[in-house]
Amino acid sequence: MSGKFDVRLQKFMADCGVASRRKCEELIQNGKVRINGHPARLGDKVDPKKDVVTLRGKRLVASGSSGPVYLMLNKPRGYVTTVHDEFGRKTVMDLVADVPARIYPVGRLDRDSEGLLLMTNDGDFANAITHPRHHFAKVYRVTVRQRVSDAVLDQMRGGMELEEYKTQPCSVSVLQSEAQRTVLEFVIYEGKNRQIRRMCEAAGLEVARLKRVSIGSIKLGGLAVGKYRMLSEQEIRRLLLNAQRKAGENA
């Protein structure tokens, strides 16, 4: 499994439309992937024309026929952000079924959350958006069923001790405040699973609604719920330039 046509296993999997490279790395580490019948390991390379790569027993074949696709989706609540769901639940793929390319979600947005989700078939693009060192700002509008005190706001802003990790400092501001309802705006740079929900839970807040409204320079705007649109060349270029700049700052 070495030669001039070899590519990293996670890149090959991403090109097949499995998921982002980071998610593919998780699948490899969890023992879901085999190369020519043997368990795959991180760091393995494959020749797409010679090697047989399987995921949960199903062979992967790179599409290769379509060009790169970059789109933004306004994800509704009730949809799982994954390519395949073993429990038969609705996935975001149902909302982009008419896209001919094998695209996949970039990053996470849990089933009960809504808003901006990027999707692509370009593994390099997905990696640029999700890599922690690129520090893309993600903005969320969060409605909770309580009035939020200044002490709680300061607690969330300064970083919170959760079970597995401490969150990085973030921006939290109040957009609306009523007796039994507060609308908050979070600006975070991490991509931890259900991070904002877990922060709110740790602070004693009940989340009624969570909506992502921007990722870096990409804004959800007036895109209708359940609809998608292709990103413009300028939007793609701006995201990638920002990723390169941040990578240089954190090198």
TrEMBL record:
<dbReference type="GO" id="GO:0000455">
    <property type="term" value="P:enzyme-directed rRNA pseudouridine synthesis"/>
</dbReference>
<dbReference type="InterPro" id="IPR002942">
    <property type="entry name" value="S4_RNA-bd"/>
</dbReference>
<dbReference type="GO" id="GO:0120159">
    <property type="term" value="F:rRNA pseudouridine synthase activity"/>
</dbReference>
<dbReference type="GO" id="GO:0005829">
    <property type="term" value="C:cytosol"/>
</dbReference>
<dbReference type="InterPro" id="IPR042092">
    <property type="entry name" value="PsdUridine_s_RsuA/RluB/E/F_cat"/>
</dbReference>
<feature type="domain" description="RNA-binding S4">
    <location>
        <begin position="7"/>
        <end position="65"/>
    </location>
</feature>
<comment type="similarity">
    <text>Belongs to the pseudouridine synthase RsuA family.</text>
</comment>
<keyword id="KW-0413">Isomerase</keyword>
<dbReference type="Pfam" id="PF01479">
    <property type="entry name" value="S4"/>
</dbReference>
<dbReference type="Pfam" id="PF00849">
    <property type="entry name" value="PseudoU_synth_2"/>
</dbReference>
<dbReference type="InterPro" id="IPR000748">
    <property type="entry name" value="PsdUridine_synth_RsuA/RluB/E/F"/>
</dbReference>
<dbReference type="InterPro" id="IPR018496">
    <property type="entry name" value="PsdUridine_synth_RsuA/RluB_CS"/>
</dbReference>
<dbReference type="InterPro" id="IPR020094">
    <property type="entry name" value="TruA/RsuA/RluB/E/F_N"/>
</dbReference>
<dbReference type="InterPro" id="IPR050343">
    <property type="entry name" value="RsuA_PseudoU_synthase"/>
</dbReference>
<dbReference type="InterPro" id="IPR006145">
    <property type="entry name" value="PsdUridine_synth_RsuA/RluA"/>
</dbReference>
<keyword id="KW-0694">RNA-binding</keyword>
<dbReference type="GO" id="GO:0003723">
    <property type="term" value="F:RNA binding"/>
</dbReference>
<dbReference type="InterPro" id="IPR020103">
    <property type="entry name" value="PsdUridine_synth_cat_dom_sf"/>
</dbReference>
<protein>
    <recommendedName>
        <fullName>Pseudouridine synthase</fullName>
        <ecNumber>5.4.99.-</ecNumber>
    </recommendedName>
</protein>
<dbReference type="InterPro" id="IPR036986">
    <property type="entry name" value="S4_RNA-bd_sf"/>
</dbReference>
